[in-house]
Design brief:
alpha+beta; 77 residues; single chain; two-stranded parallel ribbon
């Protein structure tokens, strides 16, 4: 899968890459580069073993771990 969105459910990571007074704002509506995603998808589709499928677009979920989900949480994510 080549993601086009993500959900960040982490809590213990730094909230920024900028330190010492630097301020930067970036849009997160489309967090992945469409050109790079297209290139990765094209290369991936050519190199996937038989019987497998590459999915273009999807959501990557990052969670703190180890964590076990209820069935409802798994369905939600």
């Amino acid at each position: 899968m080549v993601p086009d969105q993500f959900i960040d459910r982490t809590k213990n990571r730094p909230a920024t890459f900028f330190n010492e007074g630097a301020v930067a704002h970036v849009t997160m509506g489309d967090p992945f580069c469409t050109n790079l995603s297209r290139i990765l998808s094209e290369i991936g589709e050519k190199n996937i073993p038989g019987g497998r499928q590459l999915h273009r677009g999807g959501t990557y979920l990052a969670m703190e771990g180890p964590a076990f989900s209820t069935r409802a949480e798994s369905n939600l994510y």
